[in-house]
From TrEMBL:
InterPro entries: COQ10_START, START-like_dom_sf. Residues 11-138 form the Coenzyme Q-binding protein COQ10 START domain. It comes from Streptomyces incarnatus. Coiled coil: none annotated. It holds the Pfam family Polyketide_cyc. This is Cyclase.
């Protein structure tokens, strides 16, 4: 398996509140920065997204991708690439761990393989930037009001 990049952050909210924001794909353009459009294409029998189309604009990298999501219990979601213009593969996950009555440690794990050649060191740095921005945006979104939005 390819090398992955991961990072964690502590959010002042219960895991259910954090997962509520993660699962609210329609609002991703409000807080993620890189996601310009998000459309749930398919849901499971519990109403959770199984396939999501994301239109990304991360400066030099613009992409239209479809991801397949797998929900494991209440505190973990992972995804894998279904199709993309720029990426060969993409695997990621959010794992939530309660660390107090209203505190959650969120770990984001990401592995990306682009279709264009890229040095491993540069690719991992890009993954780290993506992860850190996503975690910072998630923390801000959850702590400022969650899915209802601020």
């Amino acid at each position: 398996m390819a090398e992955h990049t991961s990072s964690s952050i502590t959010i002042e909210a219960a895991p259910a509140d954090v997962m509520g924001v993660i699962a609210d794909f329609a609002r991703y353009p409000d807080w993620t920065g890189e996601v310009k459009e998000a459309e749930v294409l398919k849901t499971d029998d519990q109403g959770r997204a199984e396939q999501v189309r994301l239109v990304m604009d991360a400066g030099a990298i613009k992409d239209d991708q479809t991801l397949a999501y797998t929900w494991t219990g209440e505190n973990e979601v992972s995804w894998t690439l279904v199709k993309s213009q720029m990426l060969r593969s993409l695997d990621g996950s959010y794992v939530l761990k309660p660390t107090g009555p209203a505190t959650t440690e969120v770990t984001y794990l990401l592995t990306v393989d682009v279709k264009i050649p890229m040095l491993g060191m540069i690719k991992r740095k890009a993954e780290k930037v993506i992860i850190d921005r996503a975690l910072a945006g998630l923390k801000k979104r959850v702590e400022q009001g969650g899915p209802a939005g601020a």
